Amino acid sequence: MDIPYTVEERPDTGLFNAKLGIWLFLASEVMLFGGLFSAYIFLRFGAPVGAFHEWGQELNIPLATLNTLILISSSVTMVMSWASLKLNDFKKYKLYMGLTLLCALGFLIIKYIEYTAKFDHHIYPSTNTFYAIYFTLTGLHGLHIIGGMIVLFYFWIPGNKMWDSKPEQFTNRIEIAGLYWHFVDLVWIFLFPVLYLL
Amino acid sequence: MSSGHDTADIQSHIKVYMTVFVALAALTIITVAASYLDLSTGEGILLALTIASVKGSLVASYFMHLISERALITWILMLTAGFFFVLMFIPMASFIDQTQIG
Questions:
Q1: Contact: B76, A186; criterion CB under 8 Å
Q2: Domains in chain A, start-ordered, CATH in brackets?
């Protein structure tokens, strides 16, 4: 038996099931990151006046700016991969999905460079409360990038056979994966000024 | 599969995506530039979070298609936003409480 409402909309929700599912999941993700943003506010209030800003001076703003631009680019290539499927252009889908993965890899490499530079200067999560929340937030975000990359890679190569048999369902899957990916970008849009610039 | 009308719709969406991309890149540069302005901590936080909120709204509205999404999703997100702001208020309330006691 086929799973119902993978393509057609449910009459009561007006959505195909996976779309409602991903939005509920993203709502839970808002609360997950929200808890840590709340912890950030708590720790900032608890630190001596100006200490968070001073401790954050060690961070590399040009690299983080580059990473922000890379992640924004990956969001565009992600939505373009979905648009390509809507236009029945599978080759372009593969190209844009490949570029999305490349951007994600670039983001992680830059994050690795940033982390190792901190460790070389003996800066760890235990150094102070700023770095405790910095490593927690960016680490959790990095794990979301890795998780997203695994899913996107699956749809890029091993899982793309569905396009031949169920193209509409495959297109919906890419839309759902894209919603997750844009959320990860959205989280970084707030993490970047909060951690690096304030 | 895609009808002619769908194709035209998607083509116009693509133009919007590119415009949003340019806006997001420009706002990123503006955020960094603004951090070098001689502002008080409060003003700096307000400006940075305002720009981030505009960027976030662009991503959610256009890349995540919230602008044309069903009402059910909007309601779910409004409920989530309510809980999110409560979560942000908790540490601030604790700080206000502390300063009043201290």
A1: no
A2: 18-197 (1.20.120.80)
